[in-house]
Here is the input.
Amino acid sequence: MITKEDVEHIGWLARIEISEQETVEYMEKLNSVLEYFGQLDELETEDVPPTYHVAEVFNVFREDVVEESLPQETVLANTENKQDGAFRSPKIG
Here is the structure.
């Protein structure tokens, strides 16, 4: 069962503010989803073949072909955020 504290912790992890009212609403919705999964767990599925995709799809990936990479200067040409031949990103902290 999902508690208010769980929802608050998830909000903290996601770095989003959740009001008291939203906390209660999300708690109810998440518990509803878990209850539904509980119902699905009760179904007999032993003789049901697994479904990996709702439509029959065969290898839709292209052949993996090794090609020459773009020159480093070309890749970095459109950014001001570069350092020592690589993209520079802001510190996360």
In short: The longest helix spans residues 20-41. The chain is about 40% helix and 5% strand.
